[in-house]
Specification:
By secondary structure, the chain is an alpha/beta fold. The protein contains 10 helices and 13 strands. The protein has a single domain, classed as Vaccinia Virus protein VP39 (Rossmann fold, 3-Layer(aba) Sandwich). Helix 7 packs across helix 9. Belongs to the methyltransferase superfamily. LaeA methyltransferase family.
Length: about 450
Amino acid sequence: MDDRNLPPAAPIRSHRRTTAASDKDHELRGSSPGPPSSPREPHPRENRDDDTTLYSATSSSCDLSKVEENHKRQNSEDREDQASKQSVSHATSKFLGTLARCTARLLCYPPRPSGSESADATSDQRDSDPGVEVKDDNDDDDDDASSVASVTSAALRGKIENGRLYAGFGSQEYGMPMDTAEKEKLSLCHTKYFALLDQQRFLAPVGNHPQKILDLGCGTGEWVIDVADMFPTAEVLGVDIAPAQRDWVPPNCQFELDDIEQPWTRKEDSFDFIFARDLLLSVRDWPRLIDQIYRHLKPGGWVELQCISGPIACDDGSLPKDSSLNEFSAMLSSSTKQFGTPIDDPARYADWLRDRGFQHVSKVVHKIPCNPWPRSEKHKLVGAFERGNLATGLEGMVIRLFSRTMGWSPEEVNAFLVDVRTDLKNENYHCYWPYTVVYAQKPGCKPVPSG
């Protein structure tokens, strides 16, 4: 057929606009566009392939939907990427901050050297303790010379007995172990006493600016660290026969290995405050120790002694006399006397301080419930601490004591403690341990100048 005889075709642009409008109208009505009323053959001037279709509103709508989906997906990925970058940036900042704090702490509080890294020791050894090497202090001009010597690795390691680790340093046997279980018990006791004393570490009126503080038998050193934070301008020293303290401490805090029952070689009249807590099964001669405390306190300085004591008490008669707990208390009293460290020594603290010449002697006796039987919230909390303490620390308290004084084996000790622990859990037994706090002042305090 000759193209010249064909009728003129409608413009392509006009056809597409009409088709798009028609399709849009169908979309608004919710129906699909139908076939054209009069099919038309494609015009040769329409430049398209045989396998393609004309542009339609339906395909345009699909393409727009895909574009919108791609745009939303891209935005979501961008947000996730930004959040990831922020998270990485936050983690990096946190890591750098932690690293900076650790570095600063390392610079401020260098780790204490081990016994093998301390100053060179002479060949002379202290007769009372073969595990000690006395340090040559001839070149040390410090008046406040330390009574602590370089120790051998054997003394630092301690010794195993009945499956527990005990201190290998000191002239007398200490009844308590120094292993991890005992350290955890001491940390729990530190919290318990803080609650018992109404969030106070001590009761003595030492003032706001003590310069030198000494803790005798400091254990894990938590009291020393807390007091060093309370008084940042003071020197706070903790001594113990067991190296159980932390390496990271405030810069005004120190720990030393020392036997407080041996003669002190520190400068006399040098401490503003001397503190001791829970020296159970450790001190054989309290009057002698108190004399050393007196001589090393400054005039007007304070001493405070805190200690749990026995026998166990019950005010309302709820604890049966034939109970395992009562039997345990009686055995504890007799065996500690035989061991040389009576458990009722704290009841005599005040008299010993007065006999030595201390003034302003004050004595306070608190009650530590054996479990959470009291009604008051404070004592219920303290009782919960004590029940947890006795559940895990009872064996360490008596295994060496009963072995030395009564010849019991570890198996016999643990078999006996089964019934004791059962009684300790019984909240119908309203029993408690006395906790004695005594503080006193050395005479000779200079009057504060007026004006």
